Amino acid sequence: MSDATHADLNRILDRQRAAFLQAGPPDLKQRRTDLRRLKAEILQRRTEIVRALNTDFGQRSERESAIVELIPLVQSINYMIAHLGHWMKPERRHVSAYFQCGRAWVVRQPVGVVGIIAPWNYPVSLALVPLATAIAAGNRAMLKPSEFTPATSAVIDEIVRATFPAEQISVVTGNGDVGAAFSALPFDHILFTGSTAVGKKVAEAAARNLTPATLELGGKSPVVIAPGFSMQRVAERVAFGKLTNAGQTCIAPDYVLVHENDRDAFAAAYQDAVKKLHPGGYVGSPDYTAILNQHHYERLSGLIDNAEAQGAQVIRLGSDSATDHVLAPVLLLNVTTQMAVMQEEIFGPVLPVLTYRTLDEAIAFINARPRPLALYYFGDNRVERDRVLKNTVSGNVTINGTLMHYVQDDLPFGGVGDSGIGAYHGKEGFMALTHARGVYRQGRFNAATLLQPPFSKLTDVITSLILR
Predict the structure, then answer these.
(1) Catalytic residue numbers, as ranges
(2) Calpha distance 327→349 (Å, rounded)
(3) Region 427-447 average pLDDT
(4) Measured torsion, CA atoms of residues 74, 76, 77, 80, in degrees rounded to the nearest 10
(5) What is the dihedral of CA 361, 364, 370, 375, to 10 degrees?
(6) Which letter, b or e, does each residue of 245-261 get, where b requires 16 or more Cβ atoms within 10 Å of its Cβ?
(7) In terms of Cα–Cα distance, which of 406, 351, 397 is closest to 378?
(8) 102: pLDDT confidence band, cut at 50, 70 and 90?
(9) Which DSSP string corresponds to 34-74?
(10) 136: buried, middle or exposed (CB in 10 Å: 19+, 13-18, 0-12)?
(11) What is the pTM of this model?
């Protein structure tokens, strides 16, 4: 699989657009068939997928690959197959008093060719769920996987080639220059998942073509723990969310806000929870994932060193391996906002803990920062919970847990502000990648005659009723 050239990208797009215009949008039966074929090919190559993920990460938990990559992907495809018929039905709309003899409705029309740019952290599900969504919406698609996961990208290419003709779905690979050229193509819609910094570049490139963009970004997703909440319970669920994929998750808990009286209890409970999750350690563990590469390992190590140099208490919860890029979980106490770890998304198994005195103080802390992709609240008091939800803005929320909003197929997934634009998953994904086409069918009676005698007086009456 060789890297695509600029000429390749333009040729594939032209070919797909011509095929879309010639064939027209696929019907419900064809879309369901395509989704089933995609699912079957994924399941048939499950072993290859898991092996490729392990190759790219150097150490990728097979269990995690099944739970966080394959299961959400297959469930999402199943959900689309089950609900696609309802989504595709024309929706009747109201007709105003003047035009009651006519009919109005909305149809969801495929936009054409969708460009999909996938990230490296979940290189299977975050490539193929958007692709399945584009197929469900009746579109053709070009998919660019991350250059940092070449083994996985090769398997994805094999899956697509075995399932679809190139004029329907194509996978293109390449480095950042290819990614930039891909973003600049005049797609009918572009869906990008990745960092906020790169997302801004994608949005800028798309804007030159007036291409609508769905941007799934990231940010610093906070955990708010209400006073007196069970620390064992919250620690177990935060540890799960933080250590899944070694923290290389866009919706991973980024930092904790806990009442100052509960900080030490949380710190102790978190250490216990981490040990229970990984009693055998981390280096060489079949249940723990390595950091993707040397660059990110050194970046995370630098965040820890920077925090320690500024007075943070660093609690290391296991042994590392720089050679294998395995970073054991780290808990940071006495954290300040001036530390680098609070200035950027962590994207690793490092958890800063900050304290608050009142819930309003915690809310103000969140609101003083860019809007996060996820927010996690732990507490049983409904009034306090509703206050946090009402007075903060984030992409999605899980209450008394972490990550679980992502796998709810009937919930939209997306950010707001710096954490993203637009949403996909389920019905919202279908709607994002289709055009709401309004249709009006005029009846036998010509409404224009209301403006002429002998209907002029009746028109005046109707007008006075509407404009009163």
Answers:
(1) 216, 250
(2) 7
(3) 87
(4) 160
(5) 60
(6) bbbbbbbbbbbbbbbee
(7) 397
(8) confident
(9) HHHHHHHHHHHTHHHHHHHHHHHHSS--HHHIIIIIIHHHH
(10) buried
(11) 0.93
CA dist., res. 290 & res. 186, Å (int): 37
Amino acid, res. 343? Q
Q: How far apart are the first and last CA of the chain?
A: 68
- As a residue count, the chain comes to 468
Indicate the Cα dihedral angle 183, 189, 190, 196, nearest 10°. Answer: 110
The 10 Å CB-count burial string (b at 16+, else e) for 98-121 is eeeeeeeeeebebbbbbbbbbbbb
List Cβ neighbours of 456 (8 Å cut-off, separation of 6 or more): 450
CA dist., res. 459 & res. 451, Å (int) = 7
pLDDT in tens, 345-383: 999 999 999 999 999 999 999 999 999 999 999 999 999
Residue 315: partners with Cβ closer than 8 Å, 6 or more residues away: 267, 271, 330, 331, 332, 333
Laid out side by side, the sheet with 91-93 consists of 91-93, 103-110, 434-441
Q: Over the stretch 42-80, which tens digit does the pLDDT of each residue have?
A: 999 999 999 999 999 999 999 999 999 999 999 999 999
Q: DSSP of 197-259, one letter per residue? A: HHHHHHHHHHHHTT--EEEE-----EEEE-TT--HHHHHHHHHHHHHGGGG--TTS--EEEEE
The rounded distance, in Å, linking the Cα atoms of 282 and 150 is: 24
Please compute Rg for the chain using Cα positions.
25
Reported as a single tens digit per residue, the pLDDT across 250-281 is 999 999 999 999 999 999 999 999 999 999 89
Amino acid identity, position 433: L
Tokens of 420: 């993203």
Q: Which residues pair with 413 in a beta bridge?
A: 424
Cα within 13 Å of Cα(389), Cβ side:
14
